[in-house]
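explain this:

___
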Amino acid sequence: MIYEIDCVLESNYGFADEELDFIINYDIKYRMGRDGGESADD
């Protein structure tokens, strides 16, 4: 679902492909944890 939101932001704000890629990778690294799984606190 977050990916879909990122794509909507891309179209609304006119992000370049590189900018969308940065946002998606930021999501993976920080929103979902560095390993892409659950954190130790969960």
About this structure: The chain has a mean pLDDT of 74. Helices lie at 2-13, 17-31.
